[in-house]
Design a protein that fits this description.
Strand content: 25-35%
Radius of gyration: 25 Å
Distance between the termini: 31 Å
Largest sheet: 6 strands, mixed
Helix content: 25-40%
Mean pLDDT: 93
Bound molecules: adenosine-5'-diphosphate, magnesium ion
Low-confidence stretches: none
Number of strands: 14
């Protein structure tokens, strides 16, 4: 089942399309990664999907409900607000009370305190937001998205600008929410984070989708050849020539120095053949390391 279905969605500001017709689906229960450089149109897309702004053209469905009837499912959506949208004289807890009233969600105070605990704001419930650090405001924003236990949660750069410890806490929280079958729509500039958390991704450039698919599919697409590194024991001089000759059937760019051998293979089925070629000459093999395609290769590729 799809939590979100987007069909040729566009947004125009002052005669200028900033989202130029995007189509993709988000599956229920997945962590979906939405990537792109600054200005690509990610926040504009999130704002349309979460009902904050109206699309200029196109359509989308959220949990089976068409976008023109967003009011029907608003209570099932959680949105992390833009960092600026805080009332500085309010305490963290009052913030959540205020937003749960706006959302018409009848949430008890101890549940709101529990939400603050989940995002790492225990002990700050009754402190005014004006004294909060950037990271604490960010956590409060995530807390706001969790009010009413929504099924679909939009998180726009939840970890950017946080200290490493808070980043790990928030990533763990995202994984916990996902384990509770929540669908998470995540934007992030941290490619390692996206690689760790997301099953499928979209990459946007200048209002258009340039890459879309599961992390595995995209990696396969970009894995034209595998760089292979082997740490090996001594090769008897008499064997070098025949070993090189035999290996050249399975790989290219063969480099061989003392205890290291590097090469490039077009197909992972060649890896065991390379290992066998060495082993049958009694060459010790300590390490076989294929270099995997990373999200960086896909993003910049
Ligand atoms: N309210 C607005 N009015 C005019 N232009 C806007 C508005 N909001 C965003 N834009 C422009 O739309 C483009 C995409 O912005 P945004 O969706 O915020 O990108 P991202 O979140 O990927 O960084 C940018 O060029 C931005 O300046
Ligand atoms: Mg943005």
């Amino acid at each position: 089942m799809n939590a979100i279905e987007v069909n040729n969605l566009k947004k125009k500001y002052n005669d200028n399309y900033v989202v130029k017709g995007v189509s993709f689906n988000v599956k229920a229960g997945e962590i979906f990664g939405f990537l792109g450089k600054n200005g690509a149109g990610k926040t504009t897309t999130i704002n349309m999907l979460s009902g904050i702004i109206r699309p200029t053209e196109g359509a989308f469905c959220i949990m089976g409900q068409t976008h023109t009837r967003m009011d029907m499912i608003k209570s099932q959506i959680g949105v992390m607000p833009d960092a600026a949208n805080y009332y500085y004289e309010m305490t963290a807890l009052n913030h959540l009370v205020f937003f749960s009233e706006l959302k018409n969600a009848k949430v008890k105070q101890d549940q709101l305190i529990h939400i603050l605990e989940r995002v790492g704001l225990s002990g700050h419930e009754r402190k005014k937001v004006k004294g909060f650090s950037f990271g604490m405001k960010k956590k409060l924003g995530i807390a706001q998205a969790l009010i009413g236990d929504p099924k679909l949660i939009f998180l726009d750069e939840p970890t950017s600008g946080l200290d490493p410890e808070s980043v790990v806490e928030i990533q763990q929280l995202i994984q916990e929410l996902n384990a509770q079958h929540k669908t998470i729509f995540l934007t992030s500039h941290n490619l390692h984070e996206v690689e760790k958390l997301c099953s499928r991704i979209v990459i946007m450039e200048q209002g258009l989708i340039t890459k879309y698919g599961s992390m595995d599919e995209l990696k396969k697409q970009y894995q034209q050849h595998i760089e292979l590194f082997l740490k090996i024991g001594p090769v008897p001089a008499a064997n070098v020539q025949s070993m090189r000759q035999e290996l050249s059937q399975y790989c290219t760019d063969l480099m061989f120095e003392e205890s290291e051998l590097t090469c490039s293979v077009s197909n992972e089925e060649h890896i065991p053949r390379i290992v066998y070629t060495l082993a049958k000459r009694d060459i010790d093999i300590y390490k076989v390391v294929p270099k995997q395609v990373t999200l960086e290769d896909i993003f910049f590729g």
